[in-house]
Amino acid sequence: MNKIVLEARGIQFVRGKREILNIGRFSLSEGETVALIGPNGAGKSTLLQVMALLLKPDRGVVEFRGAPANGKNVLAMRRRMAVVFQESLLLNTTVAGNVAAGLKLRGIPGPEIKKRVDYWLERLGIKHLAGRRAYQLSGGESQRVSLARAFALEPEVLFLDEPFSALDFPTRLALLRELGKILRDTGVTTLFVTHDFSEVPYLTDRVAMLKNGRLVKAGTFEEVFQIKPRKETYLTSLYRIFEE
Ligand SMILES: Nc1ncnc2c1ncn2[C@@H]1O[C@H](COP(=O)(O)OP(=O)(O)OP(=O)(O)O)[C@@H](O)[C@H]1O
Ligand SMILES: [Mg+2]
Q1: Level-2 CATH architecture, domain 4-243
Q2: How far apart, in Å, do the first and last CA atoms of the chain sit?
Q3: Using a 6 Å cutoff on CB, does residue 187 contact ligand 1?
Q4: Tens digit of pLDDT for each residue in 37-96?
Q5: Which of 11, 12, 14, 15 to mutate to test the pocket of ligand 1 (most atoms within 8 A of CB)?
Q6: Helix (H) or strand (E) segment spanning residue 52
Q7: Which residues, in sequence order, are bridge partners of residue 193?
Q8: Which residues are bridge partners to 83 per DSSP?
Q9: Going by CA atoms, what residue is nearest to atom 30 of ligand 1?
Q10: For the chain, what are the domain ranges?
């Protein structure tokens, strides 16, 4: 078993009088991609934000490489992580400017920024959009920029919260295939949230299922669903027409 990078223990998260999360233990090991699945309102985004140290739980601890997050170290820890949300949240500047922004904030030297921006724009197939303003992008292009921005940070942990759920099927499929390859190539530790189970086999075989704020199942895709993972779905067959 690989080393644990991030671990949440005894997490309770309350909003108003409602308990939104109650998690005994949830962890990410070095290099693995875990798909966090569950229906709308299950608490997936809340758990993702607790793990990403963006939300402080009412009870419990999140440890990053063995060190519990606290008020003093949380900012430094966050800088070693990157998050991509469903809405791309781009800055009102160019595509290249968006990918560079986080690197500038982290004080990375100019030539290194340029190298990383060029690489990730190329890798996500958006080099030709480098000078385009963010508001002029399609949904799929915007999410490519968000992914480039996240990978350019070379995070130790990557969080993806339903990054493709607003995209049409062919765009989603193309991005899932590309992201799957990038995750395998970089080996970055990743938490991928989705309510669409059919997305999971493109990215990983590790699944954790959340229901009413509790982890109810975890294991391989087959263990959790009692069915072999398949990438080719009914929709893929229909949309093959776009690839002809
Ligand atoms: N700011 C808030 N105030 C009160 N309740 C909230 C707040 N944010 C989330 N909740 C509630 O917490 C629960 C879990 O929300 P969360 O967004 O984590 O679910 P989710 O699994 O990500 O759902 P979805 O699939 O719709 O994104 C929901 O019942 C939601 O209404
Ligand atoms: Mg959510």
Answers
A1: 3-Layer(aba) Sandwich (3.40)
A2: 43
A3: no
A4: 999 999 999 999 999 999 999 999 999 999 999 999 999 999 999 999 988 889 999 999
A5: 15
A6: none
A7: 36, 161
A8: 159
A9: 41
A10: 4-243
